[in-house]
Amino acid sequence: MSWSLHRLKVLIGVAIAATLLALVLFASPASNANKTTGLDASSGSESQSSGFSSTNGGANVQAEDRIIAEAKRILAARGQRLTIESESESEPEPEAEPETDSNNDNNKKKPDAAKPAEPEPEPEKKPEPKPEPDPNAPPRRLTLVERPPLPGPDVVFPQKFRFDVPKIASIGTTPGARFRVQGTGKFSADLPQAIAATAAANSDKPIFDNTVFFYMAGHIRTLFHTGQGLQDFFASAKVPYLVFQHTWSETDHKELTWWHGAEDAAKPPAPYSVTNPGPTETFLLDLQLPFVKNLVTMVEDDDVVTKSGRMKVGRTILEGTNPRILASYFYTLRQVHALALEYVKTKTGHEMASDAIIFRLRPDLTIFPTDMEGVRTVLQRDPNTFFGTCHGQWDNWRKYLLSDLFFATTRQVLDKLAAVNIIQWLEDNAHDAEMQKVPERSFRLLLEEIGVKLMWIDSGIILWRGPQNSLVLPCPAVP
Questions:
Q1: Residue 391: count of CB within 10 angstroms of its CB
Q2: Rounded to two decimals, what is the model's pTM?
Q3: Per-domain residue ranges for the chain?
């Protein structure tokens, strides 16, 4: 049975303690002898201490060596070997844990919070296969915003239009004209009186922010038949709107046209005035539709306008044509534009914006549903755009003509159209029968000359010349 290292260390320690005790007891008489011989304590204390330490240390070493030697001898007799570990070979002591402040909550070990369970990944969705296009399906119609403008003219027309700045001091004080604003109970002799009557009647105040302006020009003709449809058209704007109207005291003209013979002409009408309203004013005073509250009207007498020289009429250049038709059209367009500009300036104190959106129409029209939002979007992006209507799908219309019955544009374009001298244009083209007979050709050339971006408006119209006399114009924007 071999000795364990631990037991050997204990045995060596006991032996060393016993040896030290014996040495102490052995040295005690010498100390007492020193005291009896009278040695100076101060001189001999250092040497005695040194002698005792040296003797004691030597004895300890000798005793330890003897014990180790004896232990080796005993183990050797048993066929074993003594191995003594040095301090460097001893087992390392465990490191002391750092002291912590028991009052510091941050040093307290907190239990691990329960971790939320990770959500299971959703299964990857596979994209649905796109259906194969039907080769027989018709192509998708582009929206108004997506469509490109119409191509420009193939050739430059040799004659140029002339533009005159209208010399109108105040449209609201035009001699002989009558005015009515927002459905008041009577017509007034000038625009300021009509506006004052509106204020006295506590009518609703018009809104001009984001307002769309509708210009309704021409004889009212069949407005009793088209009124409700026009009401629906105005309301479809879905934004505040105002309707400006220039019309004539007679509900229809008696001029010679391709559809209206000279035999229909009647005696000249009696003079109309504020106290003697014409058929148009009587009808409008009785009209009960919501848009009347947004309506600003100017009525003039045809014979008065002609005699006064306000509307200039050229000579008959080509037999069978009537120079008054184009003259009247551009006159009433100029008057309704001037009426709108003056009313806005009077009510707001500032000019109508150059990019204000304007729809031009006639009272005798039924207008099919129109993408007004698309029209407004395009015009807001480029105010120099003009949306026109096409009366047919044949190439002649698409390339060379453009209808003046219904269109949409902005104030900056209307300023130019209202300034054209159409009488001079007809004179300059007296040799060209097409210019005399086809006003839609002249209108297309005019728009091309002033440099607007032309586009088709995606809406059809019905022209009502009488309750039983209508002309459907699909006005297709796309062939």
A1: 19
A2: 0.68
A3: 5-83, 171-358+411-446
